[in-house]
TrEMBL record:
SUPFAM superfamilies: PLP-dependent transferases (SSF53383), Winged helix' DNA-binding domain (SSF46785). It comes from Serratia rubidaea. In the C-terminal section; belongs to the class-I pyridoxal-phosphate-dependent aminotransferase family. Keywords: DNA-binding, Pyridoxal phosphate, Transcription, Transcription regulation. Coiled coil: none annotated. This is HTH-type transcriptional regulatory protein gabR. The gene is gabR_4. It comes from the Bacteria. GO terms for molecular function: DNA binding; DNA-binding transcription factor activity; pyridoxal phosphate binding. Residues 16-84 form the HTH gntR-type domain.
Length: 469
């Protein structure tokens, strides 16, 4: 039940009048907290139509609620729940169902200073993107009403194919590009199409926990493959699970440690996939946001066997609010992925796609990217310097700074306490699979503001670590 669509059962054979049943249903919704103070109720006409009763019956129920001071009726606002309910009303809020899994508690819920994966808000081009979104929304609304292509808007797919050719070396036809709801939407699309239930899958250890969880939900058995100074240890994977059906990797910038997979290991990985008829899912983590050098070539650009599925998104380069990503699949998978997109996972709002298209082909994206690289380089260096001056070993890894903790310190405990102080560091040990060797540390996102606010955040974190170590 909600304020826009009240749902309760009308017993037409009952002893209570229908008006009284409506009154009691709304009263219970108010008392339970489902209808909050100030919530607007449906009009007489709308609720009468929904329930299949006369307007006069609904009006009678509303008038009784008004007499009891539960609602206020006016011509300008309609019928609304009063702001100050009667003191004898036994109101209580319905508790929100909050997931308590480590996935939510460690990676999806925490917000605050040092939060990872969030672009710098103080340099975000709000006016420009707002104008592009408004223009795109008007364009979509003015078009002939029809279902949109579930693969994504053709112009955006063509633009992305062109950008990937230039920036990532991926030579692909627009028909191979699918627009998705971010990285996770792309991963879900691919896993549905591959249908590898019961098969083993390589995952980096440490690696992105939500992606790892997605493989488990798709019925795959995750095989942890260690990450060393050169990225995923391909030979380890071949020795321990040569028959894996898929490998999920971040070759450009390993998540979360930031190293780039060297050419020798890339070639070995591609050879293994071709020999074993396995798939490689390339998570293009951070995409173009290489701070100290030009972005490494995409693994898909080196694939001559048609075994690499490339997934990217605009969450880090523009904003996660878009929930916009893309998948580039080998020609052999185009038809299967297109079917899944049509039936289970269509592309997101066309207005968002067209606004992003304008941002790309008008040159705003590349200018924004250059600016963000300068900002993040400056901020990551300052953050690393501040933590080093406080006695920590600090390592810059992409858009985060990893700090080592004193011996015996529990990074998850520190992170959970930090959430109460407006800080959102990510515990490194949480990126490892359970029951595997792990390393403690805190990953600090660098997108926050600089200056005094950054120093204060570092000081709060330092005091908390000292208290809990």
């Amino acid at each position: 039940m909600n304020k826009k669509n009240l749902r309760f059962t009308i017993d037409r054979a009952g002893r209570l009048s229908i008006a009284e049943q409506i009154r009691r249903g709304i009263t219970e919704a108010i008392a339970s907290g489902v209808l909050q103070p100030g919530a607007r109720l449906p009009s007489w006409i709308d609720l009468a139509t929904q329930l299949g009763v006369s307007r006069g019956t609904v009006k009678t129920a509303y008038e009784r609620l008004s007499d009891e001071q539960f609602v206020v009726m006016s011509r300008s606002r309609g019928t609304c729940v009063v702001d100050n309910l009667p003191v004898n009303t036994a109101t209580h809020s319905v508790p929100e169902a909050v997931p308590t899994s480590e996935l939510y508690q460690d990676f999806l819920f925490p917000t605050g200073d040092f939060q990872m994966g969030i672009p710098a808000g103080d340099v975000f081009p709000v006016p420009l993107l707002s104008r592009l979104f408004a223009s795109s929304a008007r364009k979509v609304m003015s078009l002939r009403q029809a279902y949109c292509d579930p693969r994504g808007e053709n112009e955006l797919r063509r633009e992305i194919a062109g950008q990937l050719t230039l920036s990532r070396g991926i030579k692909c036809h627009p028909s191979q590009v699918f627009i998705t709801t971010g990285f996770t939407g792309g991963l879900g699309l691919v896993l549905h199409a591959l249908s590898l239930h019961g098969k083993p899958a390589w995952v980096e250890n440490p690696g992105f926990p939500p992606a790892r969880k997605a493989l488990s939900l798709a019925g795959l058995t995750t095989i942890p493959v260690p990450v060393d100074a050169q990225g995923i240890d391909v030979e380890y994977g071949i020795r321990h699970a040569p028959d894996a059906a898929v490998a999920l990797v971040t070759p450009g910038q390993q998540a979360p440690l930031g190293m780039t997979l060297p050419l020798e290991r890339r070639n070995r990985l591609l050879e293994w996939a071709n020999t074993n008829a396995s798939w490689i899912i390339e998570d293009d983590y951070l995409g173009e946001l290489q701070l100290n050098r030009r972005a490494a070539p995409a693994l898909a650009s080196q694939d001559t066997f048609g075994r690499v599925i490339h997934i990217g998104s605009f969450s880090k380069t523009i904003t996660p609010g878009l929930r916009l990503g893309f998948v580039v699949v080998p020609p052999s998978l185009v038809e299967a992925v297109a079917d899944v997109a049509a039936c289970l996972s269509p592309a997101p709002d066309p207005a968002i796609q067209l606004a992003t298209l304008a941002f790309l082909n008008e040159g705003h994206f590349l200018r924004h990217l250059r600016k963000m690289k300068r900002v993040y380089t400056t901020r990551s260096n300052k953050l690393a310097l501040m933590m080093t001056e406080m006695g920590y070993k600090a390592h810059i890894h992409g858009l985060s700074v990893l700090i080592d903790l004193p011996d015996g310190a529990q990074d998850k405990t520190i992170a959970h306490y930090a959430y109460n102080y407006g800080l959102a560091p990510s515990p490194l040990s949480g990126w490892y699979l359970p029951d595997t060797p792990s390393r403690a540390g805190l990953l600090l996102g660098v997108s926050g503001q600089e200056g005094e606010s950054l120093l204060q955040a570092c000081q709060r974190l330092h005091r908390l670590i000292a208290k809990l170590s």
